[in-house]
Protein backbone atom coordinates (compact mmCIF):
# COMPACT_ATOMS: atom_id res chain seq x y z
CA UNK A 1 0.00 0.00 0.00
CA UNK A 2 1.33 3.41 -0.98
CA UNK A 3 1.62 6.13 1.64
CA UNK A 4 -0.50 9.19 0.74
CA UNK A 5 -0.63 12.77 2.07
CA UNK A 6 -4.19 14.04 1.70
CA UNK A 7 -4.60 15.90 5.00
CA UNK A 8 -2.33 17.20 7.70
CA UNK A 9 -2.80 14.34 10.16
CA UNK A 10 -1.86 11.70 7.60
CA UNK A 11 1.49 12.20 9.36
CA UNK A 12 2.26 11.45 12.98
CA UNK A 13 3.77 14.24 15.09
CA UNK A 14 7.16 12.51 14.86
CA UNK A 15 6.93 12.23 11.06
CA UNK A 16 5.81 15.83 10.73
CA UNK A 17 8.83 17.09 12.66
CA UNK A 18 11.19 14.78 10.76
CA UNK A 19 9.92 16.17 7.43
CA UNK A 20 10.32 19.75 8.66
CA UNK A 21 13.88 19.06 9.81
CA UNK A 22 14.67 17.37 6.49
CA UNK A 23 13.28 20.43 4.71
CA UNK A 24 15.67 22.66 6.67
CA UNK A 25 18.52 20.34 5.69
CA UNK A 26 17.49 20.39 2.02
CA UNK A 27 17.42 24.17 2.10
CA UNK A 28 21.14 24.06 2.92
CA UNK A 29 21.97 21.10 0.68
CA UNK A 30 19.36 21.15 -2.12
CA UNK A 31 20.72 18.19 -4.11
CA UNK A 32 21.58 15.84 -1.25
CA UNK A 33 18.50 13.66 -1.85
CA UNK A 34 17.76 12.23 -5.32
CA UNK A 35 14.94 9.67 -5.02
CA UNK A 36 13.67 10.33 -8.55
CA UNK A 37 17.00 9.85 -10.35
CA UNK A 38 16.47 7.94 -13.56
CA UNK A 39 14.73 10.21 -14.09
CA UNK A 40 11.41 9.09 -12.68
CA UNK A 41 8.37 11.13 -13.67
CA UNK A 42 6.04 12.80 -11.17
CA UNK A 43 2.59 13.91 -12.34
CA UNK A 44 1.45 17.34 -11.11
CA UNK A 45 -2.22 17.97 -11.91
CA UNK A 46 -3.91 21.37 -11.74
CA UNK A 47 -7.65 21.96 -11.59
CA UNK A 48 -6.99 25.44 -10.17
CA UNK A 49 -4.63 28.13 -11.39
CA UNK A 50 -1.33 28.33 -9.55
CA UNK A 51 2.00 30.11 -9.30
CA UNK A 52 3.79 28.95 -6.13
CA UNK A 53 2.49 25.38 -6.23
CA UNK A 54 3.36 24.92 -9.90
CA UNK A 55 6.83 26.40 -9.62
CA UNK A 56 7.79 24.81 -6.29
CA UNK A 57 6.75 21.30 -7.28
CA UNK A 58 8.32 21.51 -10.75
CA UNK A 59 11.62 22.81 -9.37
CA UNK A 60 11.51 20.42 -6.42
CA UNK A 61 10.95 17.33 -8.57
CA UNK A 62 13.84 18.38 -10.81
CA UNK A 63 16.08 18.96 -7.78
CA UNK A 64 15.25 15.43 -6.62
CA UNK A 65 16.40 13.99 -9.94
CA UNK A 66 12.97 13.59 -11.50
CA UNK A 67 10.95 14.89 -14.42
CA UNK A 68 7.81 16.90 -13.61
CA UNK A 69 4.81 16.16 -15.84
CA UNK A 70 2.48 19.16 -15.54
CA UNK A 71 -1.13 18.33 -16.42
CA UNK A 72 -3.88 20.93 -16.66
CA UNK A 73 -7.20 19.16 -16.14
CA UNK A 74 -8.82 21.33 -18.83
CA UNK A 75 -6.57 19.68 -21.42
CA UNK A 76 -6.91 16.13 -20.08
CA UNK A 77 -9.71 13.57 -19.73
CA UNK A 78 -9.68 13.74 -15.91
CA UNK A 79 -13.15 14.10 -14.44
CA UNK A 80 -14.82 14.54 -17.84
CA UNK A 81 -14.52 11.53 -20.12
CA UNK A 82 -12.52 9.48 -17.64
CA UNK A 83 -13.19 8.88 -13.96
CA UNK A 84 -10.76 9.78 -11.20
CA UNK A 85 -10.35 6.09 -10.38
CA UNK A 86 -9.49 5.16 -13.97
CA UNK A 87 -7.08 8.10 -14.22
CA UNK A 88 -5.30 6.84 -11.10
CA UNK A 89 -5.01 3.34 -12.59
CA UNK A 90 -3.44 4.78 -15.74
CA UNK A 91 -1.05 7.18 -14.04
CA UNK A 92 0.26 4.89 -11.30
CA UNK A 93 1.80 2.55 -13.90
CA UNK A 94 3.84 5.38 -15.39
CA UNK A 95 4.71 7.89 -12.66
CA UNK A 96 6.39 7.76 -9.24
CA UNK A 97 3.95 10.08 -7.44
CA UNK A 98 0.76 12.02 -8.21
CA UNK A 99 0.39 15.62 -6.99
CA UNK A 100 -3.06 17.16 -7.38
CA UNK A 101 -4.34 20.71 -6.78
CA UNK A 102 -8.10 20.39 -6.91
CA UNK A 103 -11.47 21.27 -5.42
CA UNK A 104 -13.14 18.35 -3.62
CA UNK A 105 -11.30 16.39 -0.95
CA UNK A 106 -13.36 13.37 -2.03
CA UNK A 107 -11.62 13.40 -5.42
CA UNK A 108 -8.23 13.10 -3.75
CA UNK A 109 -9.50 10.23 -1.64
CA UNK A 110 -10.80 8.44 -4.73
CA UNK A 111 -7.46 8.97 -6.48
CA UNK A 112 -5.54 7.59 -3.49
CA UNK A 113 -7.87 4.60 -3.12
CA UNK A 114 -7.07 3.58 -6.68
CA UNK A 115 -3.37 4.47 -6.89
CA UNK A 116 -0.42 2.21 -6.17
CA UNK A 117 1.87 5.26 -5.89
CA UNK A 118 1.72 8.14 -3.37
CA UNK A 119 -0.92 10.82 -3.93
CA UNK A 120 -0.33 14.33 -2.49
CA UNK A 121 -2.91 17.02 -1.80
CA UNK A 122 -1.41 20.19 -3.27
CA UNK A 123 -4.59 22.04 -2.18
CA UNK A 124 -8.25 21.18 -1.84
CA UNK A 125 -11.28 23.12 -0.66
CA UNK A 126 -10.91 21.41 2.73
CA UNK A 127 -7.17 21.35 3.47
CA UNK A 128 -3.86 22.87 2.33
CA UNK A 129 -1.39 20.50 4.05
CA UNK A 130 1.68 21.21 1.88
CA UNK A 131 1.39 24.89 2.74
CA UNK A 132 1.31 24.04 6.44
CA UNK A 133 4.52 22.03 6.19
CA UNK A 134 6.15 25.13 4.72
CA UNK A 135 4.59 27.37 7.38
CA UNK A 136 5.73 25.14 10.24
CA UNK A 137 9.17 24.88 8.67
CA UNK A 138 9.32 28.70 8.58
CA UNK A 139 8.30 28.98 12.23
CA UNK A 140 10.89 26.39 13.28
CA UNK A 141 13.50 28.16 11.17
CA UNK A 142 12.79 31.54 12.77
CA UNK A 143 11.88 30.49 16.31
CA UNK A 144 13.94 27.33 16.77
CA UNK A 145 10.93 25.37 18.02
CA UNK A 146 7.23 24.74 17.48
CA UNK A 147 5.86 23.16 20.63
CA UNK A 148 4.34 25.65 23.05
CA UNK A 149 4.22 28.65 20.71
CA UNK A 150 0.97 30.53 20.14
CA UNK A 151 -0.21 30.96 16.56
CA UNK A 152 -2.99 33.48 16.01
CA UNK A 153 -4.93 33.22 12.76
CA UNK A 154 -7.32 36.00 11.72
CA UNK A 155 -9.67 35.66 8.77
CA UNK A 156 -11.77 33.10 6.96
CA UNK A 157 -12.40 29.67 8.46
CA UNK A 158 -11.36 28.07 5.18
CA UNK A 159 -8.95 25.31 4.11
CA UNK A 160 -6.02 27.25 5.56
CA UNK A 161 -7.74 27.61 8.94
CA UNK A 162 -8.57 23.88 8.87
CA UNK A 163 -4.96 22.97 8.19
CA UNK A 164 -3.65 25.37 10.84
CA UNK A 165 -5.93 23.64 13.34
CA UNK A 166 -4.84 20.10 12.46
CA UNK A 167 -1.15 20.64 11.67
CA UNK A 168 -0.70 23.17 14.47
CA UNK A 169 -2.29 20.90 17.05
CA UNK A 170 -0.17 17.99 15.82
CA UNK A 171 2.96 20.13 16.31
CA UNK A 172 2.01 21.19 19.84
CA UNK A 173 1.15 24.79 18.99
CA UNK A 174 -1.53 26.80 20.76
CA UNK A 175 -3.69 27.66 17.77
CA UNK A 176 -6.12 30.56 18.20
CA UNK A 177 -8.50 31.17 15.30
CA UNK A 178 -10.65 34.31 14.91
CA UNK A 179 -13.30 34.55 12.20
CA UNK A 180 -16.45 36.61 11.71
CA UNK A 181 -19.76 35.03 12.72
CA UNK A 182 -20.81 32.24 10.32
CA UNK A 183 -17.28 31.88 8.90
CA UNK A 184 -15.95 29.50 11.57
CA UNK A 185 -13.93 26.40 10.61
CA UNK A 186 -15.57 23.02 10.13
CA UNK A 187 -16.75 21.51 13.43
CA UNK A 188 -15.35 18.06 12.66
CA UNK A 189 -11.97 19.61 11.93
CA UNK A 190 -12.14 21.52 15.20
CA UNK A 191 -12.97 18.34 17.12
CA UNK A 192 -10.06 16.52 15.50
CA UNK A 193 -7.70 19.40 16.29
CA UNK A 194 -8.67 19.37 19.95
CA UNK A 195 -8.19 15.60 20.04
CA UNK A 196 -4.67 15.95 18.61
CA UNK A 197 -3.86 18.78 21.03
CA UNK A 198 -4.57 16.51 23.99
CA UNK A 199 -1.63 14.33 22.93
CA UNK A 200 0.74 17.09 21.83
CA UNK A 201 0.31 19.54 24.70
CA UNK A 202 -1.07 22.17 22.34
CA UNK A 203 -4.54 23.70 22.20
CA UNK A 204 -7.13 24.99 19.76
CA UNK A 205 -9.49 27.89 20.46
CA UNK A 206 -12.07 29.55 18.22
CA UNK A 207 -13.55 33.02 18.67
CA UNK A 208 -14.94 35.98 16.76
CA UNK A 209 -12.34 38.31 18.28
CA UNK A 210 -9.19 39.16 16.29
CA UNK A 211 -7.78 40.77 19.43
CA UNK A 212 -8.14 37.54 21.38
CA UNK A 213 -6.47 35.52 18.62
CA UNK A 214 -3.41 37.74 18.30
CA UNK A 215 -2.90 38.62 21.97
CA UNK A 216 0.59 37.55 23.10
CA UNK A 217 1.02 35.43 19.94
CA UNK A 218 4.41 34.28 18.67
CA UNK A 219 3.14 33.84 15.12
CA UNK A 220 0.37 35.67 13.25
CA UNK A 221 -1.25 34.35 10.08
CA UNK A 222 -4.02 35.25 7.68
CA UNK A 223 -5.32 34.33 4.24
CA UNK A 224 -7.37 35.92 1.49
CA UNK A 225 -11.00 36.61 2.32
CA UNK A 226 -12.08 35.78 -1.23
CA UNK A 227 -10.77 32.41 -2.35
CA UNK A 228 -10.99 31.10 -5.91
CA UNK A 229 -14.60 30.49 -6.84
CA UNK A 230 -15.96 33.04 -4.33
CA UNK A 231 -15.65 36.16 -6.49
CA UNK A 232 -19.44 36.64 -6.59
CA UNK A 233 -19.41 37.00 -2.80
CA UNK A 234 -16.78 39.74 -2.77
CA UNK A 235 -18.88 42.69 -1.62
CA UNK A 236 -20.64 40.71 1.11
CA UNK A 237 -17.36 39.29 2.35
CA UNK A 238 -15.70 42.71 2.44
CA UNK A 239 -18.52 43.90 4.70
CA UNK A 240 -18.52 40.77 6.88
CA UNK A 241 -14.74 40.83 7.38
CA UNK A 242 -14.52 44.48 8.42
CA UNK A 243 -12.22 44.68 11.45
CA UNK A 244 -10.37 41.48 10.57
CA UNK A 245 -7.48 43.08 8.68
CA UNK A 246 -4.11 42.00 10.06
CA UNK A 247 -2.71 45.50 10.53
CA UNK A 248 -0.17 47.25 12.75
CA UNK A 249 -2.74 47.69 15.53
CA UNK A 250 -3.33 43.94 15.77
CA UNK A 251 0.37 43.21 15.32
CA UNK A 252 1.15 45.40 18.33
CA UNK A 253 -0.96 43.08 20.52
CA UNK A 254 1.27 40.11 19.71
CA UNK A 255 4.70 39.51 21.24
CA UNK A 256 7.32 42.08 20.19
CA UNK A 257 9.23 39.43 18.23
CA UNK A 258 6.16 37.88 16.59
CA UNK A 259 6.47 36.84 12.95
CA UNK A 260 3.79 37.23 10.27
CA UNK A 261 2.72 34.58 7.75
CA UNK A 262 0.52 34.72 4.64
CA UNK A 263 0.31 31.89 2.10
CA UNK A 264 -0.18 34.33 -0.83
CA UNK A 265 -1.48 35.76 -3.05
CA UNK A 266 -2.07 38.69 -0.71
CA UNK A 267 -4.43 41.61 -1.18
CA UNK A 268 -2.97 44.61 0.61
CA UNK A 269 -5.59 46.63 2.45
CA UNK A 270 -8.01 43.73 2.77
CA UNK A 271 -6.87 40.74 4.89
CA UNK A 272 -3.46 42.32 5.59
CA UNK A 273 -2.16 45.88 5.53
CA UNK A 274 0.74 46.82 3.30
CA UNK A 275 2.91 47.96 6.21
CA UNK A 276 2.58 44.58 7.93
CA UNK A 277 3.04 42.45 4.81
CA UNK A 278 6.13 44.42 3.80
CA UNK A 279 7.29 45.12 7.35
CA UNK A 280 10.27 43.84 9.33
CA UNK A 281 8.24 41.18 11.16
CA UNK A 282 6.96 39.65 7.94
CA UNK A 283 8.61 36.36 6.93
CA UNK A 284 6.19 35.85 4.04
CA UNK A 285 8.82 35.68 1.30
CA UNK A 286 10.85 33.11 3.25
CA UNK A 287 7.59 31.23 3.76
CA UNK A 288 6.94 31.25 -0.01
CA UNK A 289 10.43 29.91 -0.72
CA UNK A 290 10.01 27.23 1.91
CA UNK A 291 7.19 25.64 -0.09
CA UNK A 292 9.99 24.28 -2.30
CA UNK A 293 12.02 22.78 0.52
CA UNK A 294 9.08 21.43 2.53
CA UNK A 295 7.52 19.74 -0.50
CA UNK A 296 10.86 18.22 -1.47
CA UNK A 297 11.17 16.77 2.02
CA UNK A 298 7.62 15.40 1.81
CA UNK A 299 8.28 13.77 -1.57
CA UNK A 300 11.48 12.20 -0.22
CA UNK A 301 9.57 10.87 2.79
CA UNK A 302 6.86 9.38 0.59
CA UNK A 303 9.38 7.90 -1.85
CA UNK A 304 11.28 6.23 0.97
CA UNK A 305 8.01 4.99 2.52
CA UNK A 306 6.92 3.66 -0.89
CA UNK A 307 10.18 1.74 -1.27
Describe the structure in your own words.
With 307 residues, this protein is α/β, with parallel strands linked by helices. Helices cover 42% and strands 15% of the residues. Helix 7 (187-200) links the parallel strand 6 and strand 7 (203-207).
* Beta-strand content estimate: 5-15%
- Global Rg: 19 Å
What summary fits the major beta sheet?
Answer: 5 strands, parallel
Helix/strand order: HEHEHEHEHEHEHEHEHHEHH
What is the helix content? Answer: 40-55%
Shape assignment? globular
Looking across the biggest beta sheet, what order are the strands in?
A: 7-6-5-8-9
For CATH, the homologous superfamily of the largest domain is named as Aspartate/ornithine carbamoyltransferase
CATH architectural category of the largest domain: 3-Layer(aba) Sandwich
First-residue to last-residue Cα separation: 10 Å
Low-confidence region ranges: none
Number of strands: 9
Average pLDDT score: 96
Amino acid sequence: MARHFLKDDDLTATEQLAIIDLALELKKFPYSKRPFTGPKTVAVIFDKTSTRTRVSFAVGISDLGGAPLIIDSQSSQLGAKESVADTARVLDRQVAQIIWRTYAQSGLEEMANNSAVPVVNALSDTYHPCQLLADLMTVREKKGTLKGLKLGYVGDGNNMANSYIIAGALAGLHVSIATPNSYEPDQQVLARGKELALSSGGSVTISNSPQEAVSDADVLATDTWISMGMEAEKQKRLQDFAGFTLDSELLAMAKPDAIVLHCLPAYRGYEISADVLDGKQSVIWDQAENRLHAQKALMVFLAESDN
